[in-house]
Every structure is written in C-alpha cells, then in structure tokens.
Amino acid sequence: MLNKCLRIIAIRPNLVYFINLKWFPMQIRNSASTSNDFLKMPNCDYAPSIYKGTNYEFIKRAYELIISPSLKQFYKEPLLIHEGRGQWLWDHRGKRYLDMFGGVATISVGHSHPKIITAISKQASKLNHISSAYMHPYLYEYVNKLMNKFSSKLRVVYLTNSGSEANELAFLMARLYTRNHNIISLRNSYHGTTYGTSASTAMSTWKYPFIVQPPGYIHMTYPDIYRGNWGGSKCRDSLIQVTGRKCDCKDKECIASEKYFQKFDESFRFSLPCSHNIAAFIAESIQGIGGAVQYPKYFLQKIYNYVHEKGGLCIADEVQTGFGRTGEHFWGFESHGVEPDIVTLAKGIGNGFPLGAVVTNNKIANSLNSALHFNTFGGNPLACVVGSTVLDIIEEEGLQQNAHIVGTYLINRLSTLLLEFPNIIGDIRGKGLMIGIELISNSETKRPLESEHILEIFENIKNMGILVGKGGLYANVLRIKPPLCITKEDADFTFAVIKRALEKYKKKYS
C-alpha cells in the first residue's frame, strides 16, 4: 500500500500540490469560523511559508508503517508541523499554534532563533565536523562559557549528544570512581531510554515486557506531596500548595520530608548489601516525564547528605529543569540548596540541536583514564557554536528572569481553576515555566481521569491553538514547558484555552 502511494505521488506531484493550494484558504477559513470554541490568539508578526511538501496522508501512513511505528502520535489527527518561529508553530495547512510544550522542554530560546540560524550558517561554511582526536577552538570556548554557570568545584565538561547518553556516562563515572555498582533513583523518575538509563527510570509505562533489567539499579521512595502518604499545605517549594491537606510544618522543618526520608533509609537498609555499597543517587530537580512532581522541602538535602555519608555520589539530572527554566535559578538543583558531584544536561542546552553534557570535578573525571573513552560527535563544532549561542541569548534576552515572571503569572492564573473545577483538577504545581496540571475524576480518592476523557480535553486544547504535553504514570498530567520567550499575553491565552476546554468537558459530563 505504501509503495502504491509512493508511485501515485511520484507520478502526480503537481496534482497533490494543486489540491493542497486549492483547499488551503478554505481550511484556514473554516478552522476559524465554524466553532465558537476558538479564542483570539495573541498577534504574531511572522508570516510562514506555504507548505509545498509531501501529501499529509502519505506522511501519516509512512509514520504508521516505516518511521518508528512504535512512536505514538499525540492526537487523533496527528499534527504535521511545517514551520516554527519563537513560541509559534504552523502545521501544513498554515494553522498557527502556541507551543506550550517546547518539544518536551527542549526549545529554550524559541524556534528558529535568528542568532542560532546565523551561527549555524556561519560555522557550517567553515567546519561541520572533525574527530575529537583533534582540537578546535569552539569546544574550548564553549566549555569555558558553560563552566562559568557552575561552582568552582565542577570544572570538567564532557559533551554528548543527548540526555540519555549523558546519564549513561554519569553512571559510568560514578561506578569507576566509587568502585561500587548500585545506582539509586526515585520512583516515578525518568532518566532516559538506553539500557542503563531505562533501568534507572522508575515508571512501568517505560518498561518493556520480557526484557531482563541489568543489575545495579534500585528504585526508592516516591516523595509526591499530592499523591503520597505525607504532605500538606506548607511542604512544597511552589506558589501553589496542595489543597485539602494540612500539615504542622515549621520554618526550616518539613514533616513530610522527614517521613519520606525515613522510607528512603528503610529501603536502603532492606535493598542494599550490608556494606551499603552505592555508586550514585540520581534525581531530577522536578520530575519531568513523571508529571512535574515536586519533592517536599529539604528532602534532597537529606538524601544528598545521607548518600555522601555512605560514600556515594549525587547526580543532578538537569535535562529538563536546567538553563533557567525554573526561573529563580539557572539550575533546578539550586532551589534545593544542594551541591551535586555530577550534573547532566541536554534538551534546552541546544534549543533542539542534538547536544548533551556531563559536568563534574577533576577527580571523578579522571576515573575514565583507566581505559579509553571516545565520543565521535561529542564536542562537534556545530554543536559547540549552537550551545554557546543559546547561553548568549538566555543572558542577553533575560530569559531566566522572563521564565520566573511569566511562569509565576501563569501559575497564579491557573490556580483559580482548582476552585472552579475541584472534581477535574486535583493539583497544580511547578516553578517558572515547568508546570503540571493533574486531572482527576474523584477529588476524594484522587483517581486519575479516564484516559479517553484526558484525550478529549487534550484534543480540544490543541484545536483551540495550544500545544501542551502529557505526563505522569497515568498520563493524566498536562505538562506546560514552553520556550522561555513566551509573554504574559501568551499566558493569558493559554489559561483561557485550558479553562474553555475544561468548561466544555464539565458541561458534557456533569
């Protein structure tokens, strides 16, 4: 069937293009006029080009058969994204969307940023790639610029191509340095999809059946203030606290933190050898794929101190929370008052360009000298130029500050939905522009909203021009992680669309 489609399009490409152009104005006109669900979008001065590529149905069929068939598309009618600029995306029909997901927290400074386009073009005209067996100045310049974002103790950088690869390298370093094997991670965490990082990931939805997990990975407690056994109205480092749960926490003291730490200690004693040999503990500053879950105050401090006492290292997974996304700090771990031994980076580091990094100290880095270590693409000249430009843009355009200001504004606006839809929204949480909205079907039991209803709300939000993500073990958390350049006007539109989608759902099912 696919070959047949290929032949048809190969023979009649002009016909396909003619049909697309003929219906293009009508599609746009209809999408804006046939439903009162549509709200006025913020203005955008950029005019995208008209799509002249392969037929939509053909591409859709190819995705189902030959392009990663295991990849599940987000929507009933999958999006074919054609162009992007800043916080905006356009599909093949020319419909505009406000991207509030940022390619899974990856687009940090905006789609097709002019400075990145210029930097790539300039570098590509000089040097695309050389083996890391040779030196080039762009690697030196970028690494120095990146190191300035860390304390004086973290002075060595290894560049990789992704977050999964960065975490794998961090595990290797920790094991070599400590001469221990066990990697500890938290339940509901996500650290990648390679063999090792998928073993450290503690969500059943990412586990394949019949595949034996490698040894040396242990999952500890799940310190979720909303769904866990402990947590109350003062436990979270967030503008919005859990509703309906009280606590007696005091300044510098969190009862939930102590309770979850005790569970961690208990698991540690039951699950590890009596010698307590641990290579490393890894945690996200805010759980990303897990649904923007925030830990109780001081929890990570207690864990870091405990792991260090046992001779292990602490790895901060900043793949999603790094580069100013949480607003108050450049790195998410800074909000917890901890100092990691290793930091792993990716996603926002390259604004969509394949790039990752491991940052550590000299002693830990030197552990790799016991054998050869080589990365073909790590430190690629193009990647270094992009990474360097991203750092410049974040600084020059004040994007960390913008994440804090606009994120605070949006979280405060979204918090009103807790009162308006108490039987649909169970929790709203996050910092800066890393926000989660947990959907439920029962406020007493906190039962997750049924998947078909989540998809309906999700689809309606998309139809009104907003793209958000999904997360959590039950995929019932709307994830908001946009480019850091969004405005308060964009936040207002996002709030209005989500509210309209919830109103529509409530009217249909109440």
From TrEMBL:
A GO molecular function held by the record: (R)-3-amino-2-methylpropionate-pyruvate transaminase activity
InterPro entries per the UniProt record, alphabetical: Aminotrans_3, Aminotrans_3_PPA_site, PyrdxlP-dep_Trfase, PyrdxlP-dep_Trfase_major, PyrdxlP-dep_Trfase_small, Znf_SWIM
Pfam family, one: Aminotran_3
GO CC list: mitochondrion
TM annotation in the entry: none
Protein name, per record: Alanine--glyoxylate aminotransferase 2, mitochondrial
Lineage: Eukaryota, Metazoa, Ecdysozoa, Arthropoda, Hexapoda
Record's subcellular location: Mitochondrion
Function: Multifunctional aminotransferase with a broad substrate specificity. Catalyzes the conversion of glyoxylate to glycine using alanine as the amino donor. Catalyzes metabolism of not L- but the D-isomer of D-beta-aminoisobutyric acid to generate 2-methyl-3-oxopropanoate and alanine. Catalyzes the transfer of the amino group from beta-alanine to pyruvate to yield L-alanine and 3-oxopropanoate. Can metabolize NG-monomethyl-L-arginine (NMMA), asymmetric NG,NG-dimethyl-L-arginine (ADMA) and symmetric NG,N'G-dimethyl-L-arginine (SDMA).
Primary localization: mitochondrion
Signal peptide extent: none
Family: Belongs to the class-III pyridoxal-phosphate-dependent aminotransferase family.
Swiss-Prot/TrEMBL GO biological process terms: glyoxylate catabolic process; L-alanine catabolic process, by transamination
Subunit structure as annotated in this protein's UniProt entry: Homotetramer.
Needed cofactors: pyridoxal 5'-phosphate
